[in-house]
């Protein structure tokens, strides 16, 4: 098989800089890419049972061909794997595999595997090298870029983790052919987000070209590359999320609360929560006279066109009341000293960080939306 | 109570720089020091049951007086507390205390509490601020400085952790008055180490003045300050231990193997392993014709004078054979790609990093020493 040369997106983080390669066939080329960049390193491959079945033979053959030693560390699929007990098991498997400090941990999977493996890489031997081979659209455009890793605890999601940058990201867009339509759409919500944050031309391009992304045309590589470039630029400005990086949370404060309210279950996957959250963020911004109601309608129309949910009424099984949703919002780790920080917008592609959003206004807005359900 | 002004030792690490304050009375002054440097921060105090009884009331009163909110997180005493399960418990207690990202974790304790609390601070909310209030001599001159944090697993000691620099270290030398003589001596081994690495004048000063350090005269603050300065200088050159920082392992490769061989028990505490290890490092260096046998004799004489063990024969309960000790040495995480790295010396105060030490020479040397037991 031959493929078009991958697109390279550099992430500029000083001595932690790295490249994201985007293209078809990168799974099979992983051994050569790693050998040329990290000669002599051995690899612990962290993956889940489903992905091991689908992709581990190809990856193992690629590493073997490049003379790279490897040990598999296979975890169960699903968000519940991002737990302390699986974290401990993965870290200990890496140590038991006798990997050394210069060796590397490779995450073959979506956001769950990437977050778990990255956190394990951050702490095994106080920090090992890390390669992401994201297998979902969500992971390719979001979680594999930027170095956030972590696990969940009963106290909340992603409250435990580390900033640990990968040394290389291999985004094989061909792997996305095997995703379910629902999972592909959920990842697409994050693609649309980059347009909504600060790139109105990209959002307009998506409105025209989204079918090519879903169908696996060259639009897909372009959309992944634009998304990664957008995220890389924000991360380069604010690696540890003390400022601008918060923009990436557009739609996420509402979205996380909805995910929590539905028990992080199949009732609402992350990207679906973000889709509804982005519509709510635009509508709430319009309510605060920051943008026009037309902006919210335009966002809703596009997300609905690709098949994403855009309203609270589309969440199966009912929702708690506004007070409970507010409590879930307040529990979000982006709370700083008791004030609510939201990402609001002045229009499509004009998002901004709003500190000191009045909680009463948010509560009233949510109560109204819940009544419409 | 009034005390002499504390000695300040700055640790220069760019935007992670911080001060070590050294003096009597700093426990009672902790609230004021923290309030002036980190206004509005709340504090999770991690400590063990014994230290909570001894020191928590004074610390809590000091924080109260400064208007600083605090929650205690009390763990059992002893090395076995540096485990995954206690790590999880401490992290979750910090989250349950609703501490935010700008709040801080304070370690009130020795190396165990500092390593555990520091690792928890590194990962709770992906990194919180961290203050060390070391209560043992070992912690004041070694583990509280430099940002190494971590826990043990069945695979080995300190193989899991993070580099997470404190924002402030408060070394209250008055707290050392309550240490057992054995614990004080064990910490002293690390003080002597700084002389042996690269400061022969300090080692000569210790030979003359060690009684004042043990007795609690002003020699104590001086020795702690010289030790912290020495460690800070090495850490500033090589924060992540890719080079020079390995010098701090003088005596530790042998020492760790002996600790492992005795099950990390009361048979041999860390500083005692280091004392014997430093004598072995000098003797082995003499065997390799790097220094004179007189250097080893001088080191041994001083460490024996303060009451530290200096020979394998002083370890109660017997030792495994040389092959087993070599296996324990090879398991040490400072192994890089199969070659042995040792800290050897050309004389008192002239230690250096020796890569590619022939394992056979070490094995033969150990076998001989074991026969003498």
TrEMBL record, chains A, B:
<keyword id="KW-0028">Amino-acid biosynthesis</keyword>
<dbReference type="InterPro" id="IPR016037">
    <property type="entry name" value="DHQ_synth_AroB"/>
</dbReference>
<keyword id="KW-0170">Cobalt</keyword>
<keyword id="KW-0057">Aromatic amino acid biosynthesis</keyword>
<dbReference type="GO" id="GO:0009423">
    <property type="term" value="P:chorismate biosynthetic process"/>
</dbReference>
<keyword id="KW-0547">Nucleotide-binding</keyword>
<dbReference type="GO" id="GO:0000166">
    <property type="term" value="F:nucleotide binding"/>
</dbReference>
<keyword id="KW-0963">Cytoplasm</keyword>
<dbReference type="Pfam" id="PF24621">
    <property type="entry name" value="DHQS_C"/>
</dbReference>
<dbReference type="GO" id="GO:0046872">
    <property type="term" value="F:metal ion binding"/>
</dbReference>
<dbReference type="InterPro" id="IPR056179">
    <property type="entry name" value="DHQS_C"/>
</dbReference>
<dbReference type="GO" id="GO:0008652">
    <property type="term" value="P:amino acid biosynthetic process"/>
</dbReference>
<dbReference type="InterPro" id="IPR030963">
    <property type="entry name" value="DHQ_synth_fam"/>
</dbReference>
<keyword id="KW-0456">Lyase</keyword>
<protein>
    <recommendedName>
        <fullName>3-dehydroquinate synthase</fullName>
        <ecNumber>4.2.3.4</ecNumber>
    </recommendedName>
</protein>
<feature type="binding site">
    <location>
        <position position="157"/>
    </location>
    <ligand>
        <name>NAD(+)</name>
    </ligand>
</feature>
<feature type="domain" description="3-dehydroquinate synthase C-terminal">
    <location>
        <begin position="187"/>
        <end position="335"/>
    </location>
</feature>
<keyword id="KW-0520">NAD</keyword>
<dbReference type="Pfam" id="PF01761">
    <property type="entry name" value="DHQ_synthase"/>
</dbReference>
<feature type="binding site">
    <location>
        <position position="148"/>
    </location>
    <ligand>
        <name>NAD(+)</name>
    </ligand>
</feature>
<keyword id="KW-0479">Metal-binding</keyword>
<feature type="domain" description="3-dehydroquinate synthase N-terminal">
    <location>
        <begin position="73"/>
        <end position="185"/>
    </location>
</feature>
<comment type="pathway">
    <text>Metabolic intermediate biosynthesis; chorismate biosynthesis; chorismate from D-erythrose 4-phosphate and phosphoenolpyruvate: step 2/7.</text>
</comment>
<feature type="binding site">
    <location>
        <begin position="111"/>
        <end position="115"/>
    </location>
    <ligand>
        <name>NAD(+)</name>
    </ligand>
</feature>
<feature type="binding site">
    <location>
        <position position="270"/>
    </location>
    <ligand>
        <name>Zn(2+)</name>
    </ligand>
</feature>
<feature type="binding site">
    <location>
        <position position="252"/>
    </location>
    <ligand>
        <name>Zn(2+)</name>
    </ligand>
</feature>
<feature type="binding site">
    <location>
        <position position="190"/>
    </location>
    <ligand>
        <name>Zn(2+)</name>
    </ligand>
</feature>
<comment type="similarity">
    <text>Belongs to the sugar phosphate cyclases superfamily. Dehydroquinate synthase family.</text>
</comment>
<dbReference type="InterPro" id="IPR050071">
    <property type="entry name" value="Dehydroquinate_synthase"/>
</dbReference>
<keyword id="KW-0862">Zinc</keyword>
<dbReference type="InterPro" id="IPR030960">
    <property type="entry name" value="DHQS/DOIS_N"/>
</dbReference>
<dbReference type="GO" id="GO:0009073">
    <property type="term" value="P:aromatic amino acid family biosynthetic process"/>
</dbReference>
<dbReference type="GO" id="GO:0003856">
    <property type="term" value="F:3-dehydroquinate synthase activity"/>
</dbReference>
<feature type="binding site">
    <location>
        <begin position="135"/>
        <end position="136"/>
    </location>
    <ligand>
        <name>NAD(+)</name>
    </ligand>
</feature>
<dbReference type="GO" id="GO:0005737">
    <property type="term" value="C:cytoplasm"/>
</dbReference>
<comment type="function">
    <text>Catalyzes the conversion of 3-deoxy-D-arabino-heptulosonate 7-phosphate (DAHP) to dehydroquinate (DHQ).</text>
</comment>
């Amino acid at each position: 098989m031959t493929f078009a040369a991958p697109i390279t997106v550099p992430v500029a983080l000083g001595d932690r800089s790295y490249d994201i390669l985007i293209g078809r066939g990168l799974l099979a080329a992983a051994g050569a890419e790693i050998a040329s960049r990290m000669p002599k390193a051995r690899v612990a491959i962290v993956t889940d049972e489903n992905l091991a079945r689908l992709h581990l033979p190809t990856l193992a053959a690629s590493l073997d061909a490049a003379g790279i030693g490897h040990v598999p560390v296979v975890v169960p699929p699903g968000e519940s794997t991002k737990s302390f007990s699986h974290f401990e098991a993965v870290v200990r498997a890496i140590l038991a595999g006798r990997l050394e400090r210069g060796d590397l941990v490779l995450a073959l999977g979506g956001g769950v595997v990437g977050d778990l493996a990255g956190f394990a890489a951050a702490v095994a031997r106080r920090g090992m090298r890390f390669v992401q081979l994201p297998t979902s659209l969500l992971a390719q455009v979001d979680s594999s870029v930027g170095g956030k890793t972590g696990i969940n605890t009963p106290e909340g999601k992603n409250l435990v983790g580390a900033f640990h940058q990968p040394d290389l990201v291999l985004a094989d867009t061909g792997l996305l052919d095997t995703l379910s339509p629902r999972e592909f759409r959920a990842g697409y919500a994050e693609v649309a987000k980059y347009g909504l944050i600060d790139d109105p031309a990209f959002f307009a391009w998506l409105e025209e070209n989204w079918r090519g992304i879903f169908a696996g045309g060259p639009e897909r590589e372009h959309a992944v590359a634009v998304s990664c470039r957008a995220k890389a630029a924000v991360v380069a400005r604010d690696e540890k999320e003390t400022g601008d990086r918060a923009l990436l949370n557009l739609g996420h404060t509402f979205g996380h609360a909805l995910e929590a309210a539905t028990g992080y279950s199949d009732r609402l996957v992350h990207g679906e929560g973000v889709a509804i959250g982005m519509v709510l963020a635009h509508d709430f911004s319009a309510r605060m006279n920051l943008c026009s109601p037309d902006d919210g309608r335009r966002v809703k129309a596009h997300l609905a066109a690709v098949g994403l949910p855009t309203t609270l009424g589309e969440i199966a099984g009912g929702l708690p009341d506004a007070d409970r949703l507010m409590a879930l919002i307040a529990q979000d780790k982006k709370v700083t000293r008791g004030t609510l920080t939201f990402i609001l917008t002045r229009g499509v592609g004009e998002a901004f960080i709003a500190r000191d959003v009045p909680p009463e206004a948010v509560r009233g807005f949510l109560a109204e939306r819940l009544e419409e359900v």
